[in-house]
Amino acid sequence: MKFSKRSLAVKPSATVKVSNKAKQMIADGIDVINLGIGEPDFQTPDSIDQAAIEAINSGKASFYTPASGLSALKDAISQRIKADFDVFYSPDNISVTNGAKMALYTLMQVLVDEGDEVLIPKPGWVSYEQQIVLAGANPVMVSTNDEFKITEETLNEAVTKNTRLLIINSPQNPTGTIYTKEELTAIGNWAIMHNIMIIADDIYGSLVYNGAEFTSLIQLDDNIVAQTILVNGLSKSYSMTGWRIGYIAAAPEIISKVNAILSHSTSNPAAVSQYASIAALTGDQSVVEQMRLAFEDRLNKIYPLLQDVPGFNMAVKPQGAFYMFPNVEEAVRIAGLSSSSELVEKLLDEAHVATVDGAAFGLPGYLRLSYAASLDNLIEAVSRINEYMQSFT
Ligand code: PLP
Predict the structure, then answer these.
(1) How far is the CA of 39 from the centre of ligand 1 (A)?
(2) Of 55, 88, 144, 271, which residue is least crowded by CB atoms under 10 Å?
(3) Looking at the structure, do residues 257 and 366 belong to the same domain, yes or no?
C-alpha cells in the first residue's frame, strides 16, 4: 500500500493515545483516574440540551446548513464577542467550524504553503504542529521564559524570512499561562513589524482564575486586530466538547477562503449543535461562571498538594485553562527512570493515574495533569502519585 507523504508525516495525538489506554484500563475494570483528558467533566448545561431537543423535534436539525454556519449562529457569535470584548465583528467575518480544531486546521490550509514556517510556543497544544505538517509547512517551536511565555527576544531567535504565522494561545494549554495586555501588545507589534499574521487561540478565554485578567489580542489597537485571526469555540467554556462547534473571526478575504474549503470538506457543523450553540451564546451566561468557579476551587485545592509530591516542581501557579504542568525531572531521577514518558507509563500502570508527557507539547521533563475531574478524584489521584513517589524516598 502506498501512503501519501502527508499521512506518513503526521503523528497520532499523544493526548488521545494516553486517554484511550486509560479508558481501556477502566473498561477492563481497573480503577484508573484519568487526568490525561482535555475536556471539562461537566454535563452540557440543561438549557443548551433543551434547545437541541427542540431543534430536533421541530425538524430544523434534519437539514444541511450553510457551510460556514447558520446566520443566526453567526449573529449570536458576533453579539457574544461584542458583549465580552466590546469589539464588533460583522457576521460576514465569521465562519463556524466543527470545533476550534477544524478552525485551526482549515486556517493552516488557507494560509501556509510548503516551505513556510509557523511559530508555536514551546510548550504548545499537540495539534498545532501536526496541522502545520499536514498543510506542508514547517512548525517552529519558540522557546519560552520561566513563566512559559514567548517574548520578543525568543521570537527574534525563531523568526526567518519564511515565517508566515504565529499562534498565541492564552490561557495556554498545557501550562495555564495568561499573557498580559502589555505582553500581547509587544508581541502584536513585533508581528506587524515582521509582517506575520497571528492566530489568537482564545479557546480557554473564559477559564481564568484568582483575579487574573484575560486580554484577547482582538482588544488591542486596530493595527494589531488587523493582524489577528480569532479562533474560539464552545467546547471548553460551555462544556460542549462533544457538540463540535468552533469559529473563526477574521478579515472577509480570509473567511471566504476558509468557507470554500469547508464547503468541500465538512459541508457544515451538525445542525443540531449549531442550534444548541445559539442557545448557549445568547442564554444565561451564569452557567459559564459556575463551571469557572468549580475549576478555580479545584486548582486552589490541588496545586498545593501537587507541590508537596517529591520531585514535582511547579514554581508558577497556573492562571487559566484546566491544566497543571509541573517539572518532573527530579521525580524521574528519584524513581530511577530515564524520562518523563517513562514516568507517565509508571503512573498509569502502578499508581493508576493517567497524565500526559510534556514531550507531547514539545517539552519533555514535564507532565500535564488536567484538573477537569471531580475534587475527590483529584485528591485521590495526587495522593496516589504521592504514594508512588514516596516509595522511593
Ligand atoms: N485549542 C486548544 C489550545 C485546545 O486545547 C483545544 C482542545 O483541546 C482546541 C483548540 C480545540 O478545541 P475544540 O476542537 O474542541 O473546539
Answers:
(1) 9
(2) 88
(3) no
Residue 51 and residue 299: Cα distance in Å, rounded? Answer: 32
Per-residue pLDDT of the chain (393 residues; tens, 9 = 90+): 999 988 898 887 766 777 788 889 999 999 999 998 888 999 999 999 999 999 999 999 999 999 999 999 999 999 999 999 999 999 999 999 999 999 999 999 999 999 999 999 999 998 999 999 999 999 999 999 999 999 999 999 999 999 999 999 999 999 999 999 999 999 999 999 999 999 999 999 999 999 999 999 999 999 999 999 999 999 999 999 999 999 999 999 999 999 999 999 999 999 999 999 999 999 999 999 999 999 999 999 999 999 999 999 998 999 999 999 999 999 999 999 999 999 999 999 999 999 999 999 999 999 999 999 999 999 999 999 999 999 997
| Cα 100 to ligand 1 centre (Å) | 6
State how far the Cα of 131 lies from the Cα of 125, in Å rounded to an integer: 11
In terms of domains, do 68 and 207 share one? Answer: yes
* DSSP type of residue 251: -
Q: Which atom of ligand 1 is nearest to the CA of 125?
A: 3
Ligand 1 atom with the smallest distance to the CA of 39 is 8
- CA distances in angstroms from 268 to 92, 230, 262, listed in the order given: 16, 19, 7
Ligand 1 surroundings by CB, under 6 angstroms? 38, 99-101, 125, 169, 173, 201, 203, 233, 235, 241, 246
Report the run of H or E that residue 52 belongs to, with start and end.
Answer: helix 46-57
Domain-ending residue, one of 282, 313, 338: 282
Give the Å distance between the CA of 241 and the centre of ligand 1. Answer: 9
- 132 and 71 in a common domain: yes
**CA distances from residue 98 to 12, 137, 165, 219, 291 in whole angstroms, order as listed:** 19, 22, 22, 25, 23
> What CATH number did the domain enclosing 298 receive?
3.90.1150.10
Tell me which of 236, 241, 370 to substitute to probe ligand 1's pocket, judged by most ligand atoms within 8 Å of the beta carbon.
236
Query: The domain containing residue 178 runs over which residues?
Result: 62-282
Number of domains in the chain: 2
Structural contact between residues 40 and 291, judged by C-beta atoms closer than 8 angstroms: yes
